[in-house]
């Protein structure tokens, strides 16, 4: 139980932020950090663990946004019903897209998922009767909990924080279970896993579906934060942000990606002091991170630790080592 | 070693775009035996192993494991039916620890589903406890206990071969197929690997071993199957196979009468 203590303390500290008199501006950054971290962590499950680079997550994010909005505005199931529907619909879509996309190889998976996102953006723009076309669906109502409006920054912040905590807890439970180990095993050596009785496709579909559901629900949170959903929700900016968070943090490392999600939401804001140079500095930092740490921060720490362990390790046993 | 054979191949055939890799693989592996599979390069041994383990689908013929028809089943179902194999190019999950490699090898056989895995069900805990115990036992038998927490990728080649053997044994399979377990192993250590295999066999494991090292096969096996040009040439006890003129011909390319 002790291993749960640090994240719970961090959660508690984050929950106290509004009580410590944080401004709406600061809370806004907090909300974005919560939502984007879930996006990055969901991408981490499918890419960092299962080794499948999914561009479909942009579509899942957008579809989740539209779905949650339509649930509240058109279907009469409210924000919560819409959010649940977003999760279920995206999980189902992930299975539908995943079955053909996984039939070939990891490269075709990238192409198929990318096409899916491009198509989704077209549908969002052109299916005016449902999506509202380029104008989108403005004026989304505030989420309510037991009749309590969650519009004010502290309340929406708590909502986003609870959403992030639950989503990350689910992802953590999956990745630390032997399902997570099997996903890593499949990425490293698929024939061996098959020879050990593992059917690869169901595991990959499971990871893809969970990942899609959470990313879609994060999209739902995002549009209710912005109070509008339009085709901009399918802007490549979002996917690129999740991707960068995951890669800089270290794909396949759970907490590293979570921390990167938070830091990389806050960092651009801290650089606001230098308005013109902001994105230049940010870009330079990213470039430096990629050149110096191709495995992300966590990957760099890991290889440093391995190197130290190897340096201090005893000489290998001659009996077994001689076989090499 | 009595009773019906554990594994039986009947007329297994496999071609790749007109190349007849295997034309007639027919042999049996007796329960409790160490059976060797030898033959010159290109005689179809590896394709046969791929066919019986589900990595290739045979064009014709039957594969029976303990009476059950496993012909053409995908690899993961062959594995679940109780046949585990190693690979010629040793395969391990390099980034996982040696211990996790063994735990991973056992998991598909214990019947715990996804929900049980995520919720850490009591059945999962029992299964993992049993697997951990077996992992320690096997690591002890191959002498790698002290490397249990090392990443598999950091092991030496010989250690990897032993680790792959232990992984194949994890779920208590009915049959273990080893594809060239001695290849790349230092000649001075081959006898030790032989001793490990003999010990495991005495404890009840059945092995089918593909190997180029004929001396090793002759020392180790109860039964030897000889392949030539994609078909089973002959099979029998080592002494008999060794003196078979057709075997000499297959290996040396000289007519038996010469």
UniProtKB/TrEMBL annotation, chain A:
Places the protein is found: Cell membrane
Major site of localization recorded for this protein: membrane
Pfam name, any one: BPD_transp_2
Superkingdom, taxonomy of origin: Bacteria
TM ranges: 83-102, 109-128, 156-174, 205-225, 237-267, 279-301
Keyword Manganese: no
Molecular function per GO: branched-chain amino acid transmembrane transporter activity
GO terms for cellular component: plasma membrane
Alphabetical keyword list: Cell membrane, Membrane, Transmembrane, Transmembrane helix
Presence of the UniProt keyword Transmembrane helix in the record: yes
Membrane topology field: Multi-pass membrane protein
PANTHER family linked to this entry: HIGH-AFFINITY BRANCHED-CHAIN AMINO ACID TRANSPORT SYSTEM PERMEASE, HIGH-AFFINITY BRANCHED-CHAIN AMINO ACID TRANSPORT SYSTEM PERMEASE PROTEIN LIVM
Protein name: Branched-chain amino acid ABC transporter permease
Automatic annotation (TrEMBL), chain B:
Gene3D superfamilies listed in its UniProt record: P-loop containing nucleotide triphosphate hydrolases
Domain of life: Bacteria
Keywords noted in UniProt: ATP-binding, Nucleotide-binding, Transport
Residue ranges annotated for the ABC transporter domain, each copy included: 7-254
SUPFAM superfamilies for the chain: P-loop containing nucleoside triphosphate hydrolases (SSF52540)
Record GO terms (molecular function): ATP binding; ATP hydrolysis activity
Entry GO CC: plasma membrane
Family matches, as SMART domains: AAA
Name used for this protein in its record: ABC transporter ATP-binding protein
Native species: Roseomonas acroporae
């Amino acid at each position: 139980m002790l291993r749960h203590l640090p994240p719970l303390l961090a959660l508690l500290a984050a929950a106290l932020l509004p009580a410590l008199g944080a401004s709406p501006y600061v809370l806004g950054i907090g909300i974005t950090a919560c939502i984007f971290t879930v996006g990055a962590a969901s991408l981490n499950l499918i890419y960092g663990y299962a080794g499948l680079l999914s561009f479909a997550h942009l579509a899942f994010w957008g579809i989740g946004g539209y779905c949650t909005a339509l649930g509240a505005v058109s279907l009469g199931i409210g924000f919560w019903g819409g959010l649940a529907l977003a999760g279920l619909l995206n999980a189902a879509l992930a299975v539908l897209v995943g079955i053909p996309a996984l039939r070939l190889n990891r490269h075709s998976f990238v192409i198929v998922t990318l096409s899916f996102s491009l198509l989704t953006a077209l549908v969002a723009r052109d299916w005016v009767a449902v999506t509202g076309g380029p104008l989108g669906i403005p004026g989304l109502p505030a989420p309510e909990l037991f009749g309590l409006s969650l519009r004010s920054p502290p309340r929406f912040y708590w909502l986003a924080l609870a959403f992030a905590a639950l989503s990350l807890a689910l992802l953590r439970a999956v990745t630390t279970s032997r399902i997570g180990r099997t996903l890593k095993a499949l990425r490293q050596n698929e024939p061996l896993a098959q020879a050990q009785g593992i059917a690869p496709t169901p595991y990959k579909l499971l990871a893809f579906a969970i990942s899609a559901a959470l990313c879609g629900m994060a999209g739902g949170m995002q549009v209710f934060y912005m109070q509008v959903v339009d085709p901009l929700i399918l802007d490549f900016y979002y996917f690129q942000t999740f991707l960068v968070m995951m890669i800089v943090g270290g794909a396949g490392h759970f907490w590293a990606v979570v921390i990167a999600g938070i830091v990389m939401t806050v960092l651009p804001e801290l650089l606001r002091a230098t308005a013109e140079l902001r994105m230049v500095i940010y870009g330079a930092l990213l470039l430096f991170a990629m050149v110096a740490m191709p495995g992300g921060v966590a990957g760099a720490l890991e290889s440093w630790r391995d190197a130290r362990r190897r340096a201090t390790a005893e000489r290998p046993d001659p009996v077994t080592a001689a076989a090499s | 070693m009595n009773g019906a054979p554990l594994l039986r191949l009947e007329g297994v055939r496999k071609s790749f775009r007109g190349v007849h890799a295997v034309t007639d693989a027919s042999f049996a592996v007796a329960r409790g035996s160490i059976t060797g599979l030898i033959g010159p390069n290109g005689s179809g041994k590896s394709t046969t192993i791929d066919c019986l383990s589900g990595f290739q689908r045979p064009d014709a013929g039957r594969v029976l494991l303990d009476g059950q028809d496993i012909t053409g089943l995908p690899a993961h179902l062959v594995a679940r039916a109780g046949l585990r194999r190693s690979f010629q190019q040793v395969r391990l999950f390099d980034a996982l620890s040696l211990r996790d490699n063994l735990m991973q090898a056992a998991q598909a056989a214990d019947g715990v589903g996804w929900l049980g895995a995520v919720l850490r069900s009591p059945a999962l805990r029992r299964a993992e406890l049993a697997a951990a115990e077996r992992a320690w036992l096997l690591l002890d038998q191959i002498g790698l206990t002290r490397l249990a927490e090392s990443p598999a990728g950091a092991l030496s080649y010989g250690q990897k071969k032993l680790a792959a053997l232990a992984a194949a044994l994890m779920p208590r399979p009915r049959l273990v197929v080893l594809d060239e377990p001695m290849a790349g192993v230092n000649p001075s250590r081959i006898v030790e690997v032989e001793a490990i295999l003999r010990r495991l066999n005495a404890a009840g494991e059945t092995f089918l071993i593909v190997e180029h090292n004929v001396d090793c096969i002759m020392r180790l096996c109860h039964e030897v199957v000889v392949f030539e040009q994609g078909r089973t040439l002959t099979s029998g006890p080592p002494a008999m196979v060794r003196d078979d003129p057709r075997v000499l011909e297959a290996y040396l390319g000289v007519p038996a009468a010469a």
